[in-house]
Amino acid sequence: MKQFSFIVQLALLSAALCASPAAARLLVPAYANPCCGGGPTMWTAVNAFAAAQPMQIGVVLNPASGPGASPIDPNYIDATGHGPLVDLIATGAPAYGYVATTNGSKPIATAQAEIALYYDSNYWRGQSIHLAGIFFDEMSNDLANVPYYGMLRDAVRQHDAGAYIIGNPGLSSTINPSNQMTYTDTDFGTVFDAILVFEDYENLFATGYTAPTWQNVSGAAQLAMIAHTTPDALHMREAMSRALTRHAAWLYITDATEPNPYDALPAFWSQETLLLPQLIFVDGFNG
What we know:
By secondary structure, this protein is α/β, with parallel strands linked by helices.
C-alpha cells in the first residue's frame, strides 16, 4: 500500500507545482569540496535545482570546517572568478557560511574573525558574493551560553543587518547545569532566526523527537530538521511528512551515513526535491 501511495503522489506532481511557493525549504549541508569525491555531483545537482527552484532550497557552504584561509578555496571560486559557488549565488537561492562554535568554547574573537571573512571581498577574489547569512554549527544548548551566541548574532548583524542566522544544537532541549537564573528557554529560542532542533538518525526522528518548549513564544526561531541514515525513498517521504507536521521551515533527509553524511547527496535526491512541494500541496502540510 505504501508503494502504491508513493506512486500516486508522484503522479500528482504536476498539480502540486501549480501551487503557491513551498512554506518550507530544503537546507542542504553542501560539505563536499566541488573538486572531488561526491563534490562534483553534489554541486552540479544542487545548482541545477537552485536554478529551477531557488525558493525551495538553501545551501550551507563549508570550505574548511569554516571559511578556511583567504582567499576561498579555488575549487569554489577560481582565479578567473568562475566556479560552482558563483553559479549558486547567481540562482538567487540563499547560501549560508559555516562557522563551528565548539559548543560555545571557541574564543569569541576567533569566531568573529571567521564571520568577517565571509563579508570580505578579498575572500571572494573580488567577486560580488553576498551570503544570505551564517550557519553556526556545534551550538551549545546550555542556557549559560546564550550571551555567547548573542554576541555572534550581533557580530553578523554588524556586517549585514538583514542576515538570516541559523544555529545547530542538533536537538530541541536545553540544559542548565550551572543553575543560572538569567537566561531561559525563551532566550535560547529567540537568539537566532532558525534553530536546527533535530540532527540524527532517521529512525530516531520517527520515535524520539520532542518539540522545543520555546516553539510558540513570540519571536521564536524557525525550526530546521535533518535526518540521516534513511533506508530508502519511502522512509524519506515519511520523514519529510513528519518534519512538515512538526512545523519545520527547513528540512533535509539523506541516506548518507556517519561519520560524514554531508559529503554526497542522497540517492533519492531527485525524489526528495519533487516531493517537497507535493507534500505541502497534496497533504496540506506547511512549515
